[in-house]
Amino acid sequence: MRTAFAALCAVLCAIFAGWSPLAAQTVRYGDENIAVQAYLDPQPAEPDAAMLALHFTPRSAAWHGYWSNPGDAGQGMALSLDLPEGWTAGEALYPVPRTLRIAGLMNHVYKGDYTVLVPLKRTGGASDLGEVAGHVDFLACTDTICVPQDASLSATSGRDFAAWRAAIAPPLDRAAAYEIAGRVMRIGIPLPAGLDLAAPHLFVGAIDPGAGIRPAYADPQIFRREGNLLVAEVPLRDGVSGELPRAISGILAFGTGGEGIRFAARPGDVPLEGAEPLAGASATPSLPLLLLAALAGGLILNIMPCVFPILSLKAMTLVKAGGNERAARSDALAYTAGVVLACAALGALILALRATGEQIGWAFQLQEPLVVAVLFLLAAAITANFLGLFEIPGMAIAGGAGSRGGSFATGLLAAFVATPCTGPFMALALGAALVLNPLEGFAIFTMLGVGLALPFLLIGFVPALRRRLPRPGPWMARFRRWMALPMGSTALALGWLIWRTSGPLWLGAIAVLALALLGALGWYGRKQPTGKGASLAFLSVVGATTAGVLVALPQLRPAAASVGAAGVLDAKAFSPEALADARASGKPVFLYFTADWCLSCKVNESVAIEREATRAAFDEAGVVTLRGDWTKADSQIADYLAQHGAAGVPFYQWFDPAAPGEQLPQVLTPDLLAAKARAASPRRSD
Fold first, then answer.
1. Does residue 280 come out as left (phi exceeding 0), alpha (psi in the -120 to 50 range) or beta?
2. C-alpha distances in Å from residue 312, one per residue of 315, 326, 410, 482, 599
3. What's the whole-model pTM score?
């Protein structure tokens, strides 16, 4: 039904758009569903002005009309007037519209009676206005059907002009500005700081199609406030392809009683510095809570397989070093500095790129084949270190004390390899970091680093904790070799990711480079006991590896990613159009975003998504499954995640028919999806 409704709207709008009001003054359809009557104000505000009112009255509450920009579907009013020479009609003035979602489409509508005012102006020595006649075309719709309407107009005098004027959105008396940043349009509206803005929504007026600005009306809008400036961020479907319009007009609605203002914004700078998310406009928690969540997420990262071996062996260096308090604290501070710097730098890079319009998220670096290749080589080298092939200052547990330089480098490495594992523990904080002002977002990324470094920092500064660690002994060498297993597993996982995203040729080339690296590290390790030429050997290994990554690998073009394969659920590939079609089908929809480098995504898929029980429940309920694979950069996925305040994957949404999307937890329980499907299944008569 909803698919038919959307198609019918499109056909009717196309027909309606082709009408020529000046050439078609004969009533063809009538106004049975929404009646319209024209009135002239008997007491005009100025001698050379008049006000025409078009009062629309639906025959029942089921019918609605449209604002001048109807949104994703529908059609605004087309008016032609027969005015005496010397009289002109100005831009129609509308009350504040309301939003209506049908089949995933956002419409800008009026429910119940509404009145559009049209100012009339006399120029020169024109005669009095006299009678006003004309013709109006418009669209009347219910939630399931649309009917074209039209009427001949003959204005009479009188009626409720005071109430009709009061319902019109008043104009903003100050200049607004707008700018385009990637697929986001920011509109800065000067408003008194004391004005209460409850449940705001920005209705963008019709934009010249030549400008290439297409708002995504159904996507969430973000509002921020700094003093007397309100900043509204409106998602766009595409980047701008034409020249910017000289002005963009619209209505800012707020409150529940039809309050709002109309504005006109010209191109200009829209500052975000110091702008806070509007209270009540989003569910973003307070900054202290977000910082606490980031700290907790960083702590949890220490038990992940790519971080735990590094942390454990770093702790063992302190055991090996004995009771030197100064050395322990120096080592802990150096490690902490490396971790925090890496997290802060990566967060600052993300925030800077997003400020330029790039829609990227946390762990975006894993979408780049060269970065994954570097991580693979690092994981292979660390595994070889754990097996005793060579020693890294600051990480060794068999001879030698830790060094500040080695500890700092180890902290950098631990933070870098931990980024794919942050999803389920950092969703709240990282998602907020991307929509808060840059300083607060930077603080959240920095606190993640503090949480990641905190266990080793405490071990370094609290002697009681170090005393609880096992005493040094032969077990340390065995423990070190056992830690090669999780780190080696990390290297294998990265190799699998290379094969999936870049093809077997790339994997083969990187494997050859890794073997050469391990051979060179073994040569370096043999020189370490004597110290003769060890530094030169190490620099040679690093230089050769860097040359191989930066010079040799780019000569091989990565193959197309072999991602998005159908699984048990036979999911379709995500796109905004596919989601709109799925919503329009009237069936439940499950949308999920994943990536091959996302460990928590793969766990959720094996535990809850790719299960026969889930498939059976989905089949019974007719659930449509859409899958967005973010293993490689995808602007549509990045846009969608950003619009929903998500910093990365995993991300899950459930859509019941004709209902807004429900965001599901990032850690799925085995029966969660099956239960959602069973709840959405049609009731059986038996």
1. left
2. 5, 20, 12, 11, 21
3. 0.51
20, pLDDT greater than 60: no
Question: Collapsing DSSP states into helix, strand and coil, what is residue 171?
Answer: strand
Q: What is the C-alpha to C-alpha distance for residues 658 and 106, in angstroms, rounded to an integer?
A: 12
* Paired tokens of 440: 């607060």
Strand arrangement, sheet containing 201-204: 201-204, 248-253, 260-267, 176-181, 184-190, 229-235, 222-226, 276-277
CB count in 10 Å sphere of residue 110:
22
d(CA 175, CA 191): 10
DSSP assignments along 477-498, one per residue: HHHHHHTHHHHHHHHHHHHHHH
| Cβ 505 vs Cβ 552: under 8 Å | no
Is residue 559 helix, strand or coil? coil
pLDDT for position 232: 92
Q: Could you write out the three-class secondary structure of 44-110?
A: CCCCCEEEEEEEEEECCCCCEEEEEEEECCCCCCEEEEECCCCEEECCCECECCEEEEECCEEEEEE
For the chain, the farthest-separated pair of C-alpha atoms sits apart, in whole angstroms, at 108
Q: Is 408 helix (H, G, I), strand (E, B) or coil?
A: helix
Per-residue confidence band for 282, with pLDDT thresholds at 50, 70 and 90: very low
Tell me how far apart the alpha carbons of residues 491 and 507 are, in angstroms, rounded to a whole number: 12
The pLDDT, as a whole number, for residue 537 is: 62
Confidence of residue 431 (pLDDT cuts 50, 70, 90): low
CA atoms in the 13 A half-sphere facing the CB of 480: 26
Q: Which helix (H) or strand (E) holds 414?
A: helix 404-418
Structure tokens at 241: 């392809």
d(CA 502, CA 519): 25
Min mean pLDDT across 15-19, 72-76, 562-566 is at: 15-19
Percentage of the chain beyond pLDDT 70 is 78
Lowest mean pLDDT, pick from 21-25, 341-345, 635-639: 21-25
CA 95 to centroid of chain Cα atoms? 31
User: Which conformational region is residue 647 in: left (phi greater than 0), alpha (psi within -120 to 50 degrees), or beta?
Assistant: alpha
CA–CA separation, 148 and 54 (whole Å) = 17
Strand partners, 188: 177, 231
Beta bridge partners of 654: 590, 662
**Mean pLDDT along residues 551-580:** 69
pLDDT at 63: 94
**DSSP H or E stretch at residue 449:** helix 438-461
B/e letters for 173-204, b = 16+ CB within 10 Å, e = fewer, are eeebbbbbbbbbbbbbbebeeeeebeebbbbb
Alpha-carbon 147 to chain mean position: 37
- Distance separating the N- and C-terminal Cα atoms of the chain: 25
Q: Strand 176-181 vs strand 184-190: parallel, antiparallel, or unpaired? A: antiparallel
> How many other β-carbons are positioned within 10 Å of the β-carbon of residue 453?
28
Q: Which two tokens stand for residue 37?
A: 């009557």
Average pLDDT over residues 649-668: 81
Structure tokens at 361: 């998220």
Task: Identify the CA nearest to 631 among candidates 595, 605, 598, 591.
Answer: 595
Is the Cβ–Cβ distance between 184 and 233 less than 8 Å? yes
